[in-house]
Amino acid sequence: MVAHSGLITVLQRAVRKAAPRLRRDFGEVEQLQVSRKGPGDFVTMADKRAEQTIVEELRNARPDWGMLLEEGGKVEGDPDKPRWIVDPLDGTTNFLHGIPHFSISIAVEDPRGAGGKPEITHGIIYQPLTDESFWAEKGRGAWLHDRRLRVSARRFLDEAVIGTGIPHIGRGDFARWSRIYGAIAPEVAGIRRFGSAALDFAWVAAGRMDGFWEDDLDPWDSAAGILLVREAGGFVSDYRGQDRMMEKREYLAANGELHSKLHKLLAGSLR
């Protein structure tokens, strides 16, 4: 067993408590696909139930911490203490359609990070159907269960598989995405769109994908994933190569060599 802090134990306990119900609800969604009403309302309930379970578990462990929740919004806590950033179901559209690729993502944000700025110190991304637990602690590496993770060592774009998110109705700037896609696609071995940004980050950390870019992500989609990629030896930035991802809501993740090449293509496409 890998030694880790008590906070990682809290995160592991929270995701594992929410997972069985999500698995059951996912089985129900597959049945609901044939109903006239459709599974949309049911999925919203699954999301909320999972969040409720996670919130109860986290509150028991650290009652004075604040929270930033996808469903429940901001919950104030002691401003000098860290806060939890929670996405109880990342990949809702996959879940809704019976596609078995979604995750729970929880991060810890400490308000007193380096330079007095808030920073993510712990994170977990959990895939309930495969029982894969990707977790990281600042300065102590990224892990899949007890196996240390490293970003891929590929150096050339023509060998690289890159993940992304594609704009859809009500979300994203399709013209901007198309320009970026047009710059990157001809240079790489493949582009993938899996539908859970949290797992995209985790897969970059695990070396399954060589890079990932996406616009318009919220903190609960990205916070744990950023830490995972960085602790696995990778780089995460905005499209200009700066550390302003959350502010600009744009994310580029890869190993050092590919990050440099991708960021040039990205920046060039947006001139």
From TrEMBL:
The cofactor required is:
Mg(2+)
Reaction it catalyzes? a myo-inositol phosphate + H2O = myo-inositol + phosphate
What InterPro entries does this protein's entry cite? IMPase, Inositol_monoP_metal-BS, Inositol_monophosphatase-like, Inositol_monophosphatase_CS, Inositol_monophosphatase_SuhB
> Any one Gene Ontology biological process term?
inositol metabolic process
Q: Which Pfam families match?
A: Inositol_P
Q: Keyword Metal-binding: yes or no?
A: yes
Which amino acid positions bind Mg(2+) 1, per UniProt?
E70, D87, L89, D221
In alphabetical order, the GO MF annotations are: inositol monophosphate 1-phosphatase activity; metal ion binding
Q: Provide the residue positions that the database annotates as binding Mg(2+) 2.
A: D90
- The question of whether Translocase is a record keyword is answered with no
Q: What is its EC number?
A: 3.1.3.25
Its keywords, alphabetically, are: Hydrolase, Magnesium, Metal-binding
Family classification: Belongs to the inositol monophosphatase superfamily.
Q: Which PANTHER family match?
A: INOSITOL MONOPHOSPHATASE, INOSITOL-1-MONOPHOSPHATASE-RELATED
Q: What is this protein called?
A: Inositol-1-monophosphatase
Annotated source species:
Sphingomonas ginkgonis
